[in-house]
Amino acid sequence: MNSTDAPGGGSTSTAAGYRPTGRRETKPAAATSVHFAPGARVPNATPATQDGPEHTTEPFAYDAILLSGFGGPEGQDDVLPFLRNVTRGRGIPDERLEEVAHHYRHFGGVSPINDHNRELLAALRARLQEAGIDLPVYWGNRNWAPYLDEALEQAAADGVRTMLAIPTSAYSSYSSCRQYREDWADALESAGLQQTLSIDKVRQFFSHPGFLQPFVEGVRAGVAQALAAGHGAEQVEIMFTTHSIPTADAALSGAGLFADTEGGGYAAQHLAAAAEIIEQAAPEISWQLVYQSRSGPPSQPWLEPDINDAIGELEGRSAVVIVPLGFVSDHMEVMWDLDEEATETATERGLWVTRVPTPGVHPAFVGALVDLVQERIEGRPASERANATSIGPWFDVCRPGCCENPRLGFKPAIAGLQP
């Protein structure tokens, strides 16, 4: 591995600030408290966000950026320990975890997500440099090495005191936003940095045109392929798909703004993004929002319909274009649940099928992430921020009670008004 430079140099180790201290299978323990600066409403926040504004209009010079990923196993021996990290606190026995483990074992025990984040890390650094933003980027995962606490330890050792975090998730829900905030609190406590480091987060970026552009291009290409294969426009169905979540969690997503909307803010944000993509790419084609990757017990209601059920119920269609709208890269839920299972379901039904690429390191997406950094450095007003949907731009500081998970009980979190 390469050595790590001090902040401002722009380069870190191969794992972006992570210097391994030996193989480790367990993520940081759950935090028991969070640090509050005197008089602050938002814990472990920079002065720009301590009072909890919906959108920060105060310019602020951050020391570094924290790219936060989900993490994934990189070998067969990693699979079960990784899944234990993902499901910690839920009491799920290894026998049940093995039911999911075979997805990873099918691919040699290696999830592509870490390599995708390495590619994103390199692209983000290059684009920041092009934009004249001289900030180092550290990378830490929630559930596998490089872990968040190790990335924060390295950042602090390099002299970093204020960080702007970019989660690799675009939407509001417990698993796609609040849990990141909880894991940052866990990592700060584990590393003993609660009174040393401040971490803000960029807004949820589902409505940023740079996030949507790769999907616009993908839908156009997918529909064109279907038409070229002899399917009429009226025979094509576009299925925007995202990770299903419990309906109780969905109801608490979106800061209470969508309490009367089925699927809460989580569904509303996806529907708004899909509507914009359709308007730009294929306004004449039928479409729907579907869900995938359900993992809860049958007795627990989750968002529906499942993509396989939806494919099975199609009438008058001969072609399906699958759009992984809820994902930023081709990780396991895309490779297995879509490229394997959903594709097999469509093929068995005699349907022509294609799957649209995820944003990955598409220049427009990487540019969007840099723009999210720039708007916070500049203190750009919400009215001047890039936004392409009927919802947004979303909040810089999470609102009270947004995306909580009552089943798991209250857990300390940062980057929001309610810890």
UniProtKB/TrEMBL annotation:
Composition skew (Low complexity), residue ranges: 1-17
Q: In which pathway does it act?
A: Porphyrin-containing compound metabolism; protoheme biosynthesis
Q: What is its main location?
A: cytoplasm
Which reaction equations make up its catalytic activity? Answer: Fe-coproporphyrin III + 2 H(+) = coproporphyrin III + Fe(2+)
The cellular location(s) given in this protein's UniProt record come to: Cytoplasm
Sorted alphabetically, which CDD domains does this protein's record hold? Ferrochelatase_C, Ferrochelatase_N
Q: Which SUPFAM superfamilies match?
A: Chelatase
Positions contributing to Fe(2+) binding: 243, 333
Q: What class of enzyme is it?
A: lyase
- UniProt-listed Enzyme Commission number(s): 4.99.1.9
InterPro entries assigned to the protein according to its UniProt record, in alphabetical order:
Ferrochelatase, Ferrochelatase_C, Ferrochelatase_N
Q: Which UniProt keywords apply?
A: Cytoplasm, Heme biosynthesis, Iron, Lyase, Metal-binding, Porphyrin biosynthesis
- A GO BP term, please? heme biosynthetic process
Recorded GO MF terms? ferrochelatase activity; metal ion binding
The protein's name in its UniProt record: Coproporphyrin III ferrochelatase
Organism annotation:
Leucobacter chromiiresistens
